[in-house]
Amino acid sequence: MNQTKRKDAKASKPLSRIQEANRKAILDAALDVFATSGFRGATIDAIAARTGMSKPNLLYYFKSKQQIYQQVLEQTLEDWLAPFEAIDPEGDPVEELRRYITAKLEMSSKRPEASKLFANEILHGAPVVGSFLETTLKDLVTEKTKVIRHWVGEGKLAPIDPYHLIFMIWATTQHYADFDIQIRAVAGSQAGRPGFSEQAAQAVLTIILNGIKPR
Amino acid sequence: MNQTKRKDAKASKPLSRIQEANRKAILDAALDVFATSGFRGATIDAIAARTGMSKPNLLYYFKSKQQIYQQVLEQTLEDWLAPFEAIDPEGDPVEELRRYITAKLEMSSKRPEASKLFANEILHGAPVVGSFLETTLKDLVTEKTKVIRHWVGEGKLAPIDPYHLIFMIWATTQHYADFDIQIRAVAGSQAGRPGFSEQAAQAVLTIILNGIKPR
DNA sequence: GTCTATAAGAGGATAGAC
DNA sequence: GTCTATCCTCTTATAGAC
User: How far apart are the C-alpha atoms of A93 and A214, rounded to whole Å?
Assistant: First the structure.
């Protein structure tokens, strides 16, 4: 992840504690605003208001709206991929995938804004993360497809295409964050109940894991 | 779908053939632009340019950007739900679901803009279709959950929650349209090949249908 | 560091000629 | 019906006082 000039340049810019706190507050607020409004829909005013700062003061910390957006995205991507990277080729296939799906569902439930931010970026043509997708992510996915293919070869999984399995997991898990409005509208009372997330996890795991068990 | 004043008011506004053609051209162009740029990101200029019209001329046909957006969405929703409504309670469960999933994947492949437009609308809080989701769609989904539950009761499907099965189908099928950029970036050469859509359909059907078969 | 004021520009919408 | 010109609002970004 390209983080050319953040807190590294200690020599030229020793950021104070308040400065770091302010930057973080801005990025947190920006995540929410960008997630629900998209890049164009978001305004610096809205982000500033959410942090209690004035608009020019916010631009004292980040030189442009674009820059805030990029940094929020970068920050988010790292967390986002961690559980995917953690899939262990040596582990039990079904158990590894169960762990991965569970982790992603938990992220969708606890930080839906992160998922929405990412969805927005891709939906609009991935102007910022496009090259990241074509390099880092592509390599990572290629690696994991090999792992899955190996599992299939050993007879530990049904013969499914690794790419589509991965896409399916991404789709289902992120859907609960990205389309939460629709889910709440449609499932109504059900979606409000406390155990709903767990119920979702149960259902997704049941279907996918049953679907890929060798028979 | 609320279509209070479209081509119904024949008495006050008998639209000519060219008028209808122009309106349609505008709505087609608008679908593309709104889908890739979102409501805020889209400009009347961009839509006008795509139709070869001038901005004011476009506003002769529709009185505001908002109005164009609403009509594009309404128009899209009808097509979007047709295959869902068509799920037949009397049919064979697995066969009905196979037909539905296949139809949705085909729509994602042939008209990804429609899916993206809808995704955008939901992602941003469903400002226009919110009430539609809470009424018409909710009722429709409730009806279909009963059908699925009935199938489960008869032992024709594994005991899965109907809501989550429906969400899963929506998620996976629409993912191929909404995230096509990511899919192409990650799957690279694979995604370019002619049989890719069919391969995707095969994989999705295999996993979901295996996942819900009674055992 | 944080504010008020304002420049600069994009984009939605209208007026009015043709 | 379609165009050119224009108005006006919203938003990004900067200048400069405190």
Answer: 11
* Nearest-CA distance A19 → chain B (Å): 31
Per-residue pLDDT band at A14 (split at 50, 70, 90): confident
Contacts of A134 in chain B (CB under 8 A): 185, 188
Rounded mean pLDDT, B177-188: 97
**Which alpha helices (DSSP H) does B86-135 contain, by range?**
93-110, 112-123, 130-132
Q: Does residue B2 register a pLDDT over 60?
A: no
pLDDT digits (tens, 9 = 90+) for B65-85: 999 999 999 999 999 999 999
- CATH of segment(s) A73-212: 1.10.357.10
Q: Which residues of A touch B141 (CB under 8 A)?
A: 186-187
Q: How far apart are CA A72 and CA B78, in angstroms?
A: 37
CATH architecture for the domain at B17-63: Orthogonal Bundle (1.10)
Distance CA B124, CA A41 (A): 9
Domain layout of chain A by residue ranges: 17-63, 73-212
Query: Could you count the other beta carbons within 10 Å of the beta carbon of residue B14?
Result: 9
